[in-house]
Each structure stands twice: as structure tokens, then as C-alpha cells.
Amino acid sequence: MPLARVLIDGPSELVFDYSFPDDLTVSPGCRVRVPLRNRDATGTVLSIEPMQDLGFATRPLSSLIDPEPLLTATLLELAQWIANYYGSTMESVIRALLPESIRSEEHSAKVQKMVQLMQMPSEEKIQSIGKKAPKQQNILLLLNGCPERKMLLSELGQGAHSSVKSLVKQGYVQVVEEEIRREPDADQQEQIIESFPLPLNNEQAQALEVAKQAMAEPSKPILLLGVTGSGKTEVYLQAARHTINQGKTVLVLVPEISLTPQTVRRFKARFAALDDQVAVLHSHLSQGERFDEWHRIRNGKASIVIGARSAIFAPLPNLGLIIVDEEHDQSYKQDTSPRYHGRDIAVLRAKLEKCAIILGSATPSLESFHNAQEGKYTLVRLNQRADSHSMPLVRVLDMRLEQQKQKNSHAIFSDKLRQALELRLERGEQSILFLNRRGFARSLQCPACGHACQCPHCSIALTYHRTEDRLMCHVCGYQSIVPRKCPECKDPAIALQGYGTQKVEEVLAKLIPKAKFARIDADAMRKKNTLRDMLHAFKSKKIDILIGTQMIAKGLHFPNVTLVGILNADIGLHVPDFRAAERTFQLITQVAGRAGRGELEGEVIVQTATPHAPAIQFARRHDFDGFSEQELEFRREFQFPPYGRCAVLTVRSTHERRAEFTLQTLHRRLLENLPPEIQVSEPLPSPLIRSHGQFRFQITLRSLHARPLTKHVQSVLQKTTLPEDVTATFDMDAISFM
Ligand code: ADP
Ligand code: ZN
């Protein structure tokens, strides 16, 4: 008799073996109830092990929670890999794979009682029933009249219960329970009009051909490098159609559902005829909706699933194709444990499932591009815009000269940009203004003593919010009133430095009063549906100028936009991160790509104080190859990814000295028995030394390969007892060094 090896739910990472009776089908991935010491517990079966004589009797498990295993063998394998690679507990990984609504026993399918006609009595009998029990007669006639011969019990009218009961006894009807789906988009009732495949241009046709081949036989991942507007989405759509026609399922990952409404809608429109076979996994699904969607997917009722990062764990059976749109996007990296990268997990899942995978982007991550250069991925390029229009003309403006000219060191708009905006207004065309907010905000600073108002819990300047007339912390949400005098030296000259989207809006109102504009940023988007409504208003040309932050950089397509202004292009270059140049290049390229996507030619104006920065110059020329060549050389020289792995070990505590001391101890132990391929930095305060009231110190680690690094750090962490109130986190393949 074999044993079930069970991982117990809960933070302690307990694994025990249990026996089970012969008549119970227990397999890996099953959820089970088990006895644990003197209580009951729940857990997940990791594997089935042969019986061993351990010298003591194993206890039997109590019961199965679900009749079928919730996790497939592949997903379990994926889970194990994530736990090893990222150094996370298996329990936290299983928690990521099985959302709370699936694990907890509180949620279940919503069922409705249906009354079904089994056999219609003879005419004579009907008459006699009618005399004694007119209600029963009525129910029989009603059921007989409907096509499926069944109706909801609740629709049969008040007091139908006893009549139905009696009809059941007589064998005329039966009551069956049917699951109903809590439909996520039911309240939106958005009209989706079916779209049809476009005839592909040569480049697209070739890309589709490569994808089809990859589906026919196990192949390498495909990196689809297509300039903005080159019609990558059309390739995804036709590849997905091909997969579905072959009876297989498709998984589509997008950076964030709420920021990519247009992409989601294009998939919905193309597969409108499949109707409820399209499942969209939003983060704001209710627990009940999530339960239903998950089980629909598990049961093979969804042939295409669209979702953000965590959708990579969607339990789709029979996967034929995975698509990762905007594969370079940072939001694919999870920033709590398990700190997995959705794109990397997608590549691994495709390998395990033996299915095709397409990673698409106009600005691929250097990791993926390097993999293509090394021959690990198949590179497919779309160099032309699909509508045969040219790439927008990009001008770079030196704001230092502009500010001298205008005799205003705070000038936000260059004359060129203002004129360009006015021209668009005259022509009835639209513009987008983009403000890079990374590591930047409008803060309150005293010119006399230099004091800047900071968050008392985080080492970051507070940002001024005009509508509320308050200072706010963008890290923890702390708010305070605006001091009228400098809190340090009491000088009343304390003033706002820098600018944010609100300030841009204010200046623009004075500069071009006729223009109608709207602002899209995290503050303006707190309310549900605001983004959708604003994009809709912009599309129907009720708005001339759209002002926004990173939120508008992704996948938007507006044919009437002919001008994009990037107000402070270089701000992201000055953050302490080896990917700063890559991010700046990606951001400018992506934002510029919003211009000239229709019949009309596009223009992009990039304002910067560092016009010669390579990231800006390469973006100006739409030169991904030039940029990647130069940047990869720098990465190679310093053994940064993709030429090695980079991880961060962070220690946090409300007690500054204790955090620092703990990290020093860890640092010492890391250096003992250090495998030669691993490089360990000095322990340092994090760039954001204080966050949410906790002090943070970090060590950066580099290594040629990931496994030895994770193993070494894990072994040190396991041997070290951290003081109470000190936590340590390990982030493999870190993308944030703040
Ligand atoms: P990307 O995703 O690469 O940025 P899109 O898929 O948004 O590009 O395509 C840009 C525009 O070109 C869209 O309006 C799309 O409908 C159109 N398009 C794509 N492929 C074709 C094609 N083969 N023929 C004509 N128009 C196309
Ligand atoms: Zn704060």
C-alpha cells in the first residue's frame, strides 16, 4: 500500500506521509484533509511514495476535499522548480498556484435547482390531476411547453415546492442541480463586435508560419521582435486561432489587465463566436467568480485564457500555445514571495507542456534578445508598420538650452512642443503628453536650508497633490498637511520643486486654453472604470490632449494621435539600477510608438537635459540593434544579466541597528565557503533606506548560474536565527534595487 506525501497548509512548511484506503483514488495534486497531532488540517498531495517501514504506524488521511486533483503533474513540477530556483517555500508556491478561493472550502460552485419532466402523463391522467391538484397540472403543462422540458424551480411560482415533491413521488418529474456560472463581465455588458482575420503582410505571414511549425513539433521559444504598430497582435490572434482549430488551448499573458483594455478587447472580438470559451482573469474578480472561472478552465471549458502574471498558473488542459505580450514588462516579476518572473515561468511551462510559446515586444528584454542571439530562441522580426506607414519622426530637444532661452529654469514646455500642440489642435488631430515619474515627484523644499519634506516612515520625499492640497508618500500612502513655513528653519519661502501630472495640467490650461485635456495617472484612476471611460472619450475625440504617466505607455492604439510629447525623458536614467538605460530606451520607444498609427504621419518630441545619452539617441533612431549591442557590451563587462545572474538579499526591521547588524552577520557567513563563481557586494543601506517604517539594508549577489547562488544563500539563511522583528528576503533575478 503506497503513501501520500502531503504538504500541510500553513507557514511552517510541514510534510508528512499518510496512508489511504484502497477504494480512495489519491494522486499528486489532490487536496486532502488529514489528522495532524491532535487537530485536523488540510494539505496538498505532492507525491505518492512506496510504503516504507518507518518503525511506527503512519496515520491514514481523513478524506479528499475535491474528487479530482486540482494540480496537474506539470503544474506540480513547475511549483517544485519555482521553490528551488527562487528559494521560496513550497507552501508559498502552492498558495500562488491555487488562489485562496480555490483552496478554501468556503467556496463552491453556485447551483440552481431545475425541475425536469421525465414522463408526461396521459391526457386522461392529466385531467384527473387537474381536478385534485390544479397546481400540479399547471406545472406539468408548463414543463411540457418548454423546449428542454425543464425549468428553474424558482420560476415555477410560489408554493411550487410541495407540488413538485408530489410529482417527483409519482415519477413524472425529477429535480436536478445545475451549476451556474457567475459571469465576471456580466455587469459591463460591453458590446463586442466580432472581428475577422486580416490578410497578413509578408513579414507577418512568415511569423505565423514559424509559430505553426512550433505547434507541429516541440521547438524553441519564438521571440517576436516587431516595431510598434507592426501588427504583432494580428499574428497572436491568427496563431491562437490555428491552435484552437487543432483542438488545443491558448494562454495569453498581458502586463496588466486594467492597463491593456484594448488588447483584451481585440482577443474578445476575434473569438466572439466562441463566446464563453474566452476566460479573462482580472485581479478584481470576486472569490465566487474566480472559483467558477478556475474550475471552468480546469474542466476544459475555456479554450483561451487571458490574464496577467499569475495567469501563467491557469490549469488549462491540453495547452497548445502560450503568448507573452510585451515580454519586457517589469510587471511580470512578482514582488512578494514566491518572487517568480511570469515570462520565465511561461518559457518553462511551455517546455514541460511541449507547446509553442511566443514572446512579443517592440523592445525585448536584453535577457530574451541575448537568448535569441545565442540560438536558444528563434528570432522573428517585423520591421515594417502593418499599415505601411512610416515610423514617427523623433526630435530630441535640449531643455537646458530651452530654459535659458525662456529665462525660466522651471519651464515645462519647450516652444517647439507648444507650437506642435497648437498645430494639432488647428488640424483637429490629437496629442499625448507623457511624464516619466520613476524616482521622481513634485516635492516641497526650502531654498534657504535645503530641507525637503520627507515621509516619516520611508526615506523618500513627499509628493504634493494639488486637488487635496496635501503631501503624500508614494510608497506607503502617508499624508500630511502642507507646512506654510520650513519645518527646520521656519523660512516661509519653502516652495514646490519639480513637477507632476497635475502641474502639467495646470500649466497647459494657461498655455493652450482652448484645448480639452484629460489626465491619466494612478491618482486619477482610483475609481473603477475611469481609465476605460477616459480612453473611450479620447477615442471618440472628445479630448484633444491626453496627459499621463507610465500607465499610458502600454499597447494603446489611437489612429488620430499624430503628436507625442515626452516631457522629461531622462529622469529614469538617474536611478541606481543597472537596467536604467534599458528602461529609458524601452519607455521612449513604447511611448513614441503611440504616434502616427493611422493614415496621418506621427511626430515625437523628446525633452531632456541629457540629449546625448545613448538610450535617448538610439530611441530617437528606432534603433534596437544599436542600443542592444552597446548595452550588452556594458553588461558583459560587469557580468550583469544576461551574462550572469543577479540577486538581492534584503534585511528589514523597524530597528535600524538590528537590521544593519543582522545583514553584517549574514554577509560574514555568505563569505564562508563561498563558491568561487559567486560575487558578494558589501552590505549597504538600500537606496530607499526606510519604507513603511522599516529600515532596509541589502547585499547584491552575482553568479554565473542561478542554482549555486540560491543554494548558498538558502543554506546561510537556514543556519542563521534572525532576531525577532528582523526579516530577510531573497530576490533571485531581481529587477528592483530600490
Ligand atoms: P503592434 O501590436 O505590433 O503594436 P497592432 O497589432 O496594434 O501592432 O497593429 C497596428 C495596426 O495595424 C492595427 O490597427 C491593426 O489592425 C493593423 N494591422 C495589423 N495587421 C494588419 C494587416 N495585415 N493589414 C492591415 N492592417 C493591419
Ligand atoms: Zn511612506
Q: Separation of termini?
A: 53 Å
Total number of beta strands: 31
The CATH superfamily title of the largest domain: P-loop containing nucleotide triphosphate hydrolases
Characterize the largest beta sheet: strand count, sense, and whether it forms a barrel.
Answer: 7 strands, parallel
Number of domains: 6
User: What form results from the Cα inertia axes?
Assistant: globular
Which value, in Å, is the CA radius of gyration? 30 Å
Helical region count?
Answer: 21
Structural class: alpha/beta
Q: What are the bound molecules?
A: adenosine-5'-diphosphate, zinc ion
Query: Oligomerization state of this entry?
Result: single chain
Mean pLDDT: 88
Please indicate the percent range of residues in DSSP E strands (runs of 2 or more).
15-25%
Gross CATH architecture of the largest domain: 3-Layer(aba) Sandwich
Spatial strand sequence of the major β-sheet: 11-12-10-13-14-9-15
Description:
The two termini are 53 Å apart. The protein has 738 residues and is α/β, with parallel strands linked by helices. It is built from 21 helices and 31 strands. A 7-stranded parallel beta sheet has the order 11-12-10-13-14-9-15, with helices on both faces. The mean pLDDT is 88. It has 6 domains: 3-103, PriA, 3(prime) DNA-binding domain (GIY-YIG endonuclease, 3-Layer(aba) Sandwich); 110-180; 202-382, Rossmann fold (3-Layer(aba) Sandwich); 393-440 and 499-623, Rossmann fold (3-Layer(aba) Sandwich); 446-494, no CATH class; 645-732, Ribosomal protein S10 (Alpha-Beta Plaits, 2-Layer Sandwich), CATH 3.30.70.600. α1 crosses α11, α7 runs parallel beside α8 and α17 packs parallel to α18 (614-620). The chain is 32% helix and 22% strand. Bound molecules: adenosine-5'-diphosphate (ADP) and zinc ion. Zinc ion binds next to loops.
